[in-house]
Amino acid sequence: MNPELESLFEQAVGLAAAEREQFLAEHCSDPDLRRELELLLAHDQGAETFLQRAVSEEASLALNTPVFAPGQRLGPYRVLSIIGRGGMGLVYLAERADGKFEQRVAIKVLQSGEDLSGVSDRTQQECRILASLEHPNIARVLDADVSSDGLPYFVMEYVDGQPIDRYCERRRLSLRDRLRLLLPLCDALHLAHQKLIVHRDLKPDNILVTEQGIPKLLDFGIAKVLGEVPVTAQNTATRVLTPEYASPEQALGEPVTTATDIYSLGGVLYKLLTGSAPHQTQGKSPMEMVRAICEEDVRKPSELRRQLTGDIDSILLKALQVDPQRRYRSVDQFADDLESWLDGRPVLAVPPSLAYRARKFGRRHRIVLATASAVVLTLVVGAVVSIREGIRANREAAVAEAVNEFLQNDLLAQAGASAQSGSNTKPDPDLKVRTALDRAAERIEGKFKGQPEVEASIRDTMGWTYKDLGLYPEAQRQLERAVELRRRVLGTENAKTLENMSRLGWVVLLQDKYAEAEALESKAMEGQRRALGPENRETLKSMNILAAVYDEEGKYSQAEALHTQLLEVRRRVLGPEHPETMASMDNLANVYGREGKYTGAEALLTQVLEIEKRVFGPEHPKTLASMNNLAVVYYDEGKFAQAETLDVQTLEIRKRVLGPEHAETLRSMSNLANDYAHEGKYAEALALEVQTLNIQKRVLGPERDLTAVTVYNLGCLTALRGDKDRAIALLSQSVDHGLPPYVDLAMEKDTDLASLQGDPRFAALVAHAKQVAAAKQKAAATQASQ
Amino acid sequence: MQEVTLLLKRLGRGDKAALDEIIPLVYAELRRIAQGYLRREFSGGTLQPTALIHEAYLRMVRQSHPDYASRAHFYGISARIMRQILVDHARGRRAQKRASEETTVLSESLEVSGKQPLGVIVLDEAINRLSAIDERKSTLVEMRFFGGMTAEEIAECASIPVHTVRRELRIAQAWLRKELSA
Q1: Which of A95, A373, A665, B53 is most deeply buried (CB count within 10 A of its CB)?
Q2: Which listed CATH number (3.40.50.1100, 2.60.40.10, 3.40.50.970, 1.10.510.10) goes with A162-375?
Q3: What's the whole-model pTM score?
Q4: Which of B106, B33, B102, B101 is nearest to A91 (CA)?
Q5: Cβ-based contacts of B46 with chain A (< 8 Å)
């Protein structure tokens, strides 16, 4: 912009109109410049508001516009039109874009200001449960996914019908017919409650009646995907709740149970029979609404409509009790009373005590104030809600346990590598689940005051999930807290505390902290032997881990003793071919091998191999691994011909099944080359080693430890053939290009290199290798301590 | 979302490539928050983009330590994105209005308001013209109106004195208004 213009504008703009005139006359002689300046000055007034309005008008429109326009794709579906707008988002009518099915569907897109990361996992999880709800009076959930914008959506059976209240009015149904319309819904709800699924948002708009007069429940359980949003002063009216039919516990942000649905269904029936909802919420402030729902008495239906005689008052008021425990115990009971009323039989419900209602609210009202701060959704909060629901839905510890199991086995554990993929794939710690876990870990603090068992259970699960992700320090932190909580509440000798401690020991072992792992694991095992008995599965698990600790520590006799005991018990209790029994055989064989007890190792591995060939088949990875292990034992025993036979077989299968460049294939090649070398078949050995080396260089790169080991093996082979110069060149090449320290250190005593002993070049190389190894170990130690 | 914090730090050190990574993240977050406002439609009042950006900031950046330089950068980037979102939306609205005649009629409660100012598109074009003669002023305007930033925040982000921001904004506003009323 013209600097002169700017400068003049700046000076003139601060002046009053009359002074401006004079200023311009004095300072601006150029007529073009003056015209432009005058224009600008004329537009100065109100310019800011003008611009602001242009932006905010568009913003308001933008924010109130459907996200998906007709014709747009949403996953495999094409949006046709918008059929409704709910508290949680818009509902679209859609059809399959690929024309695979004729069926039209309703897609509910959850539009939320909440942080929805993590919801997508839950959406999938929920969907699987919801999809299992098959009932002629429930609109099925067909699919759930997250749009490219990150909005979760549900695909549901499209129901062409009218909301139940409008249907009743338009058809002028009799009171008895209205009531009859509700009975199949009770049946549907009962089915859902048996599966511990709570609808949470029952209202006339969610119950559509088709042309044929079939009522259908919509949006089953969908409110749950957004989790429990506590009702606060800010969000009572507009968020998840439909206040007219919301239960007091929902208004207060308390956990939702099956009794919640009974309340809301009662509310719907109230509306159908009396023409108005149980509570008037229109035009009320959020706090007034909460008050109305929790405090005001529901007017007796008979006062609103005289035809409603007899026990219908009692039935409805029982369903609409403020205290969930005073409502019907189940939808079935509710339905029974409705049927009794239709048949003129006596009902279960008795007139409620009004004094009780008022007293109840006084206590609850304080809770409103206490929860009047927003709680952000996390996986964990959802988890806890489900646990509590489980407990309340049936008040049976077994059910609570089942819900907990579900969380542990399905929800969180999904993140783990073992569930995520095959055992050969590395777990990906960048998974979103990790983020969810980290956040959950932060927020768990102080959230479960007074519920240490729930907290411990969640921390335990989270810790184990961290472990599956390979994040051991995080895992340890959670498990330690869980152990501490359980120890405090349940005591040290409690089964759960001990189980938890044993898991902690395993995670500690994974971090190579042997002494600490040994202490934890032996404590857990001793405790379990006392508390659960020596042959309890959990005791055996701890024993197994402790044996692994001993093995790592080099305490072979102790490891052998434990593995022997374990194998004896497992053979007896689980049978000789049980996978755990076989794992024990493998473990014991390994320890035997390390102790030099080859006969024992050979006998065990031969048995294992025989069973695996029979049970898994001759080409199963487990069978191949055992063949490899047995070959190693033969080799160690000096039975090279037997080792060769096995290795040839293994190599042939692996080449065929895994491909010629797979790491396992290379391992077999390398082993076979060693067999050849020791049988004196140098040519075959050399050919194989060179082949291996070429593949490794290409696939792994020249500087990798495995590649270096192959170069070292070539060096050994060359030495065995008597070519000292070349052998030393190869060996020093391997030392300088990534040979693992343990090989560096073993070089001096390697019998394959016996011919080099006494050669000063070899002595120098050995010294050099020791230095390199020491440097590498030091570097590794520094890295580990950081 | 530590990611954004880190990217902002990189940007602060002059790593322009970080910008390409931040924009999609912030874009997604802004849209998500904006859609969340659907549920608060009864709360009344006009929605300000500022509120959205602030919310995005709270969600994406503010972790433990407030870092003023990062905050300024974040707001600056968000302003540009917000402008894009609103302009895209206005264009879409124009297109949708044409399309909706051929497809299903929306029920009355859903009908998009018939307001036709489409002011943002015109404003956007005017800002582009301003940018052609004075790029810095167009950036300041963007931050002020699409980012809802105060003069102090703009000064921080653009590394120029506050009084310069005020002076330049004032003439830029007048210029834009003149353009728009022509």
Answers
A1: B53
A2: 1.10.510.10
A3: 0.39
A4: B106
A5: 56-57, 59-60
